[in-house]
Structures are given as structure tokens and as C-alpha cells.
Amino acid sequence: MSQLQPPSWDAFFSRIKAIYWPSLAPWAREASWPGHDVATGPSPVPDDVWQAALIVYPNPLAWLENPVPQLKGRTPLEALKRGQVDEVRGTIMAVADFFLADPSEVVPWPEDAPGDEAHDSDEPEATP
After folding, report:
1. What's the Rg (C-alpha) of the chain?
2. How far is CA 7 from the centre of its chain?
3. pLDDT tens sequence across 94-110
């Protein structure tokens, strides 16, 4: 009897990006990690890892900066800086089902909804 193999990262990432990325607000779709200064060299956070974190975690910046048991108590950012990209990808795949909505319940962000101009405004939000 053969055991079911987990999906590869490429298959996993393609699936969640196709299903969940369109449901993110336009201002939440940052293709690259915003904490990187390009003058210092390549980002320690690959774009696919950052985009998956945006999709999976309620607060991807906090996830990057907090220790994760599966990474032996290191933060994902520390692990990435040590070259442990596959380990970080594995942690995302391991917890994704706990955070993600059922695909049948996912609704794309409405095209006529307020975009970046409403989100980036310095005006305080109206209160009821």
C-alpha cells in the first residue's frame, strides 16, 4: 500500500495563489517582502514565501519575526537568512489548512471596491 505524498511546494503555492490571492485587498497584495532594503542585496524572504505568508497568516510580519517550534525555536526570518527555505516552506504547508477558508467560500475582492486610494488616505475613517 502506498502512502499519499504531500503536494510539492510548487503545486501547493500555485493552488493557494490561484484560489486565495484574488480575495486579498489590492493593498494587501505586496509581491515582495516590504522589510527589505534592495541596496543591501537580495531579500532573505523569497517572493513565493512572502506571498504565501500573506495568504496563510493573519499577520505575516509577526509570523516572520516570532519563533516557530517546527524551526527549532528560530523565527522564519532567521531560518531564511540561514538558507532554510525548504523548512520554512514546509511550515507554511503544514499549517495552511488551519488558517485558510474552505476554497468554496473564497470570494474574489470586488473590482468596484475602494482600492489603494481609500486605504492610503490620511483621512480618518468615518465612524458610525
Report:
1. 17
2. 18
3. 999 999 999 999 998 88
- Residues in the chain, overall count: 128
* Angle (CA) 58 64 66, round 5°: 95
Helices (H), the chain: 9-20, 47-56, 60-65, 76-81, 85-99, 116-119
Q: Give the three-class secondary structure for 66.
A: coil
Please tell me the distance from the alpha carbon of residue 3 to that of residue 58, in angstroms, as a whole number.
32
* pTM of the complete model beyond 0.90: no
* Ranges of each domain in the chain: 1-24+42-100
Exposure string over 38-56, b if 16+ CB within 10 A, otherwise e: eeeeebbbbebbbbbbbbb
Nearest to 71 by CA among 84, 55, 52: 84
